[in-house]
Amino acid sequence: METDDKLGIIAMESFATQAKRINQILCEWNKADNYLIDIEVPRFNSGEAKCVIKDSVRHKDIYIISDVTNSSIKYKMDGDYNRMSPDDHYQDIKRVVGACNGKANRINVIMPFLYESRQHRKTCRESLDCAMMLKELEYMGVDNIITFDAHDPRMQNVLPLQGIENISPALQFTQQLLTEYEDIEIDPEHLMFISPDEGATERVVFFASLFGVNLGMFYKRRDYSQVVNGTNPIVAHDFCGGNLAGMDTIVVDDMIDSGGSIIDVCKQIKERGAKRVFIFATFGLFSTGFAKLDKAYEDGLFDRIFTTNLVYQKPELLEKEYYLSISMNRYIAAIIDTLHNYGSMEKIIKPAQRIRETIARYKGIPL
Question: How many domains does the chain have?
Fold first, then answer.
């Protein structure tokens, strides 16, 4: 059986497990043997590195996939092991691009968590790291950048003439929720979507409009007189919205980092009489461990956390009773297949119609 010699997938070590399954799905769809291209990124004792591509990339559409948040990978430097930071992962992406350039037909970078996406705007004399990264990849000849649920979707404006796709995982969240819970009443009297801050409002508006329910929003009051761990600490969360008594609520955000902010939001929601609290977060980083979340769950502050497998999932996380992982492998395969065949990305970026159909089936409404 012949493999499509026009498509190649380069999986960085940070995304190797998911990439194997994505490759299998594409091979099943296209009756091919393999799309994965073998590479190495060896390091010298000094910590410097290079990329070595072991298969041909000539005239291929190359898809480089990397999880820049994967801190489980280590490299040896000066006799000690260092965890790879987002900076290290990004440098390796550039090494692969540099090794491919001039030979590949198109170079596409799939970066589920957009590198430095939280440093997306200037508020004083400071670096603008995400924009610099995007311009650098453009300069290096990358044709398309595919990311998911960017912290600020306006980052697409950095590359007005270049392909940058910001994909919403809203369909997968909807499908998983309605599969796991068969007693959710989808109407304004029983369900509300809630934004944990003003930055997540667009995501919540998208969900609420498709579900036909109301939304609420928390406003973060910050102490701008000091900076702690790179941000201004949150003083309080103020709620703007209707009555939550007896309602199921769904908090939607792009990520859970330490979990402190989302726990405070859930606490206020429960204090307002909510029946159940579900959390949708595209990226579950859980960078400070699970102790706070474990206690919050024991205290009944939330019922379930849904996050995707787009970033590294700690083994401990997968064992949590309150956690549910959403696989995005098939969706990434569909994205690669669509782009490779020059198809339209409109229905993949924000799959509103498919979400409506999922809700209609759940409610027993004829399509």
Answer: 2
